[in-house]
Amino acid sequence: MRTKNSSPSTAAFLLSLLTCLLFSPKTYSADLVSQETALKYIPKAVAASLEKNQIPKEAISISVVEINPGRPGKIAATTEVDWRSQQAMNPASTMKLITTLTGLDMLGPQYRWRTNIYTDGLIRQGTLKGNLYLQGTGDPKLVPEEFAKMMKALQNLGIQKIDGNLFFDRSAYAPNVMEHNTIDGESLRAYNVPPDPLLYAFRTLSFQLGKSRTADFIDIGYTPPLSQLKVINQMQLVDQSCDNWKSNIRFNLDPEGDGATTNQLLTAQFSGSFPNACKGVNYNVVALDANTFLTQGFAAAWELSGGAWTQTPTGKSGAVPLAARLLLQFEGIPLGDDVQDINKYSNNVMARQLMLTLALEKMGKPATTENGELVIQSWLKGLGLQFPELVIENGSGLSRNEAISAEHMTQLLVAARNLSVADTFYNSLPIAGTDGTMRNRLMAHLRKFLHLKKKPEARIKTGSLADVRAISGYVMSKSGKMYAVTSFINHPNAWRGLEAHDQLLAWLLDDGPEPKQAR
């Protein structure tokens, strides 16, 4: 028997939020020293970099706060640098900090998404005679490894063969949030994948290309496995460096025969040239509709696990029938692990699905971005954070409309240090010179500290769009001081601003702000 939706009604949730906002104390607010003592100028090395790269000072905002230990529930923080910090700016992917922190605090790091599998049939002598209905709740990391676990769980129910079709219930999301709209027209790029309650492997085909170890030809593999995909390799090896390796590759993905169905044989054709200097690269493409990708991915996973079909499934969209019974409730990986991927590798669709999950869990289905924004805004106010300029469009930063000030993003970082999820959030951020989007940043500067027993570090979320470069996170300086830092550049030359941001972070690693008494 199917359980009822345990989420509170929209009206009840809004009433409880209103009560919370009117009567709850601002437990997590920080004591901020007046900004009158903050630096009202840009650090010299940063200013020099901006001038060299033709970025006007009016195009950058900077907020730096030193975080000091305080009594439980309330920390002391001192504003150190304030340059246009109250100006609303496009934050690009640093917007993910708001989404992930809200998710961690409201849902908890151990929260797991559920993918429910129903059937309208019965299991007889190892064969499920009936259809499977997959009902998703937006698991952002339903990848091949998770599908393998799901198949094993199905087999543990006594199923070896499926005599039925696949149906996909996406009622958890409002239809408009699943539309494939982009801000740059690049609909085949993985970063533009739209949300999907049954998102499988980010709906992205990832081909691995590289020179064969045993002969002069190109090996091509791909993930995730699909049941009806054939790769045709017509590429030639050329004696060139690996720079711009994509420029001479021609790719085409077509169904064989007339028309296309979810179980039709597909051919992925590669032609052109490939540099022999490339040791191994990934060619990622979003080239299949959601139902085809999920059908062939599920079918392949079932077959790889040793399962069989009476006939190849032709997966279709469809609601779970009222008479269907729950066969399996599959739980994904914990939210805390998902947040690592969202922040370290700036995964857009995972961030968008987390925002929709907040709407789904707190206001019921179908989840909408508007309800997700309402939940986030209410959570911020519950912490005593008033961000009137904040605009949230999808929660990922992949937007021309999202906006926040550097001052308020830094305030968020300060408030995060008081939450029970502070360490989980901190550890999810890319580490300069080590991993994620900061892997190759500040490496030369960090080598200066190799002799220190306790090495300084920068845990920084990055963001980039055309005309936007952004950083936000924490810096632990060489003397052990912790800084929360945010800087946004909004300008046509923003792509040249990476150096300026690295100069700012290096300045903080070196204990850049002068002691108060020396000012």
How far the N terminus sits from the C terminus, by CA atoms, comes to: 70 Å
Quaternary form:
single chain
Low-confidence stretches: 1-8, 17-37
The overall pLDDT, averaged over residues, is 90
Q: Enumerate how many helices there are, as a single number.
A: 12
Radius of gyration, Cα only, in angstroms?
25 Å
Query: What number of structural domains do the residues give?
Result: 2
Strand element count: 23
Which keywords apply here?
519 residues, Beta-lactamase, 2 domains, six-stranded mixed β-sheet, 12 helices, 26% helix, disordered N terminus
Folded structure, characterized:
It is a single chain. The protein is built from twelve helices and 23 strands. The chain has 519 residues and is α/β, with parallel strands linked by helices. 43% of the residues are buried. Mean pLDDT is 90; it is low at 1-8 and 17-37. A hairpin with a 5-residue loop joins β22 (468-476) and β23 (482-490). The chain has two domains: 40-96 and 390-514, DD-peptidase/beta-lactamase superfamily (Beta-lactamase, 3-Layer(aba) Sandwich), CATH 3.40.710.10; 114-331, no CATH class. The chain has a six-stranded mixed sheet, with helices on both faces.
Short recap of the structure:
This protein is of the alpha/beta class and about 525 residues long. It is built from twelve helices and 23 strands.
What does the secondary structure layout of this molecule look like, with pairings?
Elements (H helix, E strand, L loop, with lengths): L9 H14 L7 E3 L10 H9 L7 E9 L7 E8 L4 E2 L6 H12 L6 E6 L2 E3 L2 E3 L2 E4 L8 H12 L5 E3 L2 E4 L35 E7 L6 E6 L5 E10 L10 E7 L10 E10 L5 E5 L4 H15 L3 E2 L6 E2 L7 E7 L3 H11 L2 H16 L5 H14 L21 E2 H11 L5 H6 L15 H4 L10 E9 L2 E9 L5 E9 L7 H12 L10
Parallel strand pairs: 1-3, 7-9, 8-10, 9-17, 10-18, 13-15
Antiparallel strand pairs: 2-3, 2-23, 4-20, 5-8, 5-19, 6-7, 11-12, 11-16, 14-15, 21-22, 22-23
